From TrEMBL, chain B:
It comes from the Bacteria. Transmembrane segments: none annotated. This is MoaD/ThiS family protein. Pfam families: ThiS. It comes from Streptomyces heliomycini. Gene3D superfamilies: 3.10.20.30. CDD domains: Ubl_CysO_like.
């Protein structure tokens, strides 16, 4: 019976694509304020379903909401009285109203650290620099936010297996969330990922498959699997559930503004892998403005890449509005997507807001990881080294204003990428005596 | 030159639900023209108004992304596999 239901709902995906009219089956899905899927390129709308690309133009489908019922002050009070996790923002997410009662990792509400020591080192005014530290999530990266949305969509569409293509962090987030929520998981990663990420993905007991190739090869494989009977009935969080999954990154924008006292930051520095996170943070900020929860004033969004995988930065600097894929070669493997799906939108947003897209080499990434650790006690993974390194570079070039409120994202825990700082270790090895301690020059 | 083309789910309305179809052509551009002959309307989904690959479509000839090769001029040897894949996945 369960199998039949799963197959029936999976086939709904095909029907949804084929039909441009709302179907009763699709509209019976309860995902809160989510009203439909809308193509970001051409505006073509389809009912909610496990589909991700527009049948007209291949553009990305994203959630269209109905927020008309919200009174601004009532919404603010409801959010502030909500749980200390992303579900405080449930009225703004594609999830059912009772989402907080369902088995989920309940990520979010991570620390916004006022980074005065780092600010001093970088020449930023006191009280103006903040690090949004998402290493505090259940599996130690921001991916828990997006997977939490995908889990609810997977439940709504009747999937029982969760899958994804991953650079590592997502694999762990899917494995953990699937374990908690009672799904089977089977995830795909490049075979040569950092050991920490492989262990963190495998420990939750799901199936973990290494693909001989880079992330883009893994992603291609998953995109083909989804159209094959072998992948029938699978919810790929970042493929056929991507419209729902991606919305989880909006919660970073919501939290940052709420933690700043319902105020927009002036400048944000955000890492770019596929570019989805950056585009959804922008969407979240615009939603808060539209709902009247923050004052409508300008903000600038800056994207950060590693030089060894910088297709968006390269396109930005060349003045292009399309992104030419690259073959990644960087220690920042969580950002090593050579063909970023949302790259063109990142370019649009950086230009629209007056921001920029910049990159740093691997040496500067390592320096930045150590700088953040030394100044603020935050051990970032390589993606955090990229954002801090790019922040430094943008301050040096004058692109970032040191007198304005700036939020830098750290999206993952340094324990996952220990290899990047492998040369860091003991100051000295001594005998257990005071004499030896003095001889080592440590007094 | 005869090749096998993998069709993504969202284009299978043009191929009668078939996930794979055969096509002829010595380059990707010719293969797409041949697909259009047998599956009318499919070319306009893959190509934009200027006749270029749409920016959210990835096409592979065997294992090679044609954007790293010669785009629509990429050679399609006899027996090659061509995959058309939506680009908006991943991340």
């Amino acid at each position: 019976m369960r199998k039949m239901r799963r197959k029936g709902l999976a086939s709904m995906a095909v029907q949804t694509v084929a039909s441009t009219t709302d179907s009763a089956a699709a509209n019976s899905v309860d995902l809160g304020p989510a009203a439909a899927l809308s193509c970001r390129e051409c505006g073509h709308r389809v009912p909610l379903g496990p589909v991700f690309a527009c049948e007209e133009c291949f553009g990305p489908l994203e959630i269209a909401y109905d927020f008309s019922a919200h009174d601004t002050e009532e919404l603010r009070k409801r959010i502030e009285a909500g749980p200390a996790n992303i579900w405080r923002y449930a009225p703004l997410l594609p999830v059912p109203a009772d989402v907080a009662t369902k088995p989920n990792l309940n990520p979010g509400w991570t620390k916004l650290v006022q980074a005065d020591n780092l600010a001093r080192e970088l020449g930023v005014d006191a009280g103006k620099l903040f690090v949004k530290d998402d290493s505090g999530n259940p599996t130690h990266s921001f991916k828990d936010r997006v997977v939490a949305q995908a889990i609810e969509a997977a439940r709504a569409f009747g999937f029982t297996t969760l899958s994804c293509s991953s650079t590592g962090n997502l694999a762990g987030a899917v494995g953990a969330a699937a374990a908690r929520a009672g799904f089977r998981s089977c995830v795909f990663i490049p075979h040569d990922l950092e050991q920490g990420k492989v262990v963190m993905a495998a420990v939750y007991g799901g199936e973990l498959v290494g693909i001989e190739g880079n992330y883009d090869d893994v992603n291609r494989f998953c995109s083909e699997l989804i159209g094959d009977p072998a992948g029938e009935g699978w919810g790929f969080v970042n493929v056929n559930l991507r419209p729902y999954y991606a919305e989880g990154s909006k919660t970073l924008a919501y939290e940052i503004c709420e933690q700043l006292g319902w105020r927009l930051p002036d400048q944000l520095v955000i890492p770019i892998a596929s570019g989805s996170q950056l585009t959804k943070i922008d969407k979240g900020l615009r939603e808060l403005i539209g709902l009247g929860l923050v004052e409508d004033r300008p903000y600038k969004i800056f994207g950060a890449q590693a030089e060894g995988c910088s297709p968006v930065s390269t396109a930005y600097k060349a003045g292009h509005d399309v992104v030419r894929p690259q073959k990644p070669d960087t220690i920042a493997k969580s950002l090593a997507i050579g063909n970023p799906a949302d790259g063109p939108y990142v370019l649009d947003i950086a230009r629209r807001t007056g921001g920029a897209v910049e990159d740093v080499d691997d040496g500067r990434i390592v320096e930045a990881i150590k700088l953040l650790a030394r100044t603020e006690g935050i051990f970032a993974e390589t993606a955090g080294g990229v954002t801090v390194g790019v922040t430094r570079k943008l301050l040096e070039s004058g692109a970032l204003d040191p007198s304005l409120t700036t939020v830098v994202l750290n999206t993952g825990d340094g324990l996952k990428t220990l290899d990047a700082v492998a040369g860091t270790g003991l100051t000295a090895t001594i005998r257990p005596s005071l004499e030896s301690f003095r001889e080592a020059g440590l007094v | 030159m005869s090749v096998t083309v993998r069709i993504p789910t969202i284009l299978r309305t043009y191929t009668g639900g078939q996930a794979e179809v055969a096509a002829e052509g010595t380059t990707l551009g010719e293969v797409i023209q041949d697909l259009e002959k047998n599956h009318t309307g499919i070319a306009a989904r893959v190509l934009d108004d200027q006749g270029k690959l749409r920016r959210f479509v990835n096409v592979y000839v065997n294992d090679d992304d044609v954007r790293f090769e010669q785009g629509l001029e990429t050679a399609t040897p006899d027996g090659a596999g061509v995959s058309i894949i939506p680009a908006v996945a991943g991340g």
